[in-house]
Amino acid sequence: MGKNREITIAVHGIGYEEFASLKWRQFLRGFSLAVAVLVLAVLIASFRGQAQVPMAGSLVLVLLVAAVLAVYRSSIRRIYRQSGLSNMELTYQFDRDGWTVRRGGEQVRVLWSKTWRVRRDSRSLMLYPNRKSVNLVPLKCMTEEQMTQVLRWVRGEK
Q1: pLDDT tens profile 60-82
Q2: Within a 13 Å sphere around the CA of 84, how many CA atoms are in the beta-carbon half?
C-alpha cells in the first residue's frame, strides 16, 4: 500500500532503556505525589507550631527515599529480565483508522478513537489501548517521516 495508507514497523525486542524509562515515569508520577503530600503535611504542621523536624529526622527521611528508589530500580531490572521483552518479536501496523500489533499468531486491532492515550518521549512511542496497558514502539525502529504520519493519524488528520 502507499506510504500514507499504511505503515508497518518491525520491533525486534524492546530494550531495557525504553522499558525503564516507562517504568520510572509511572513510578515517579505516584511517588512524587506521595512525597509532595508528606512535605505539605510537615510544612503545615511546622507553621502551626505542632512539629519541628530535627536535622537527624530529615536525614533519615532522605535516606529512606533513596532506599525506596534503589529498591525500585533493582525491581525494574528483575521485571525486565523475567518479561522476555528483549527477545520479543512484534509487528505494528498503523493506518488512518488505528493500529494493529502482531506477535506470533496473535493480533490485536485498536482504533484511534478507542486508544486511551498516545505519548512520545525521547526513546519510544507509547500506545495505551486502555488505562492499564501500554505498547512500546522504540523510536529507533521508526523513521521521522513514519512518526510524523502516525501522529497525524492520532490527531485525526489524513
Answers
A1: 767 777 777 787 788 888 888 88
A2: 4
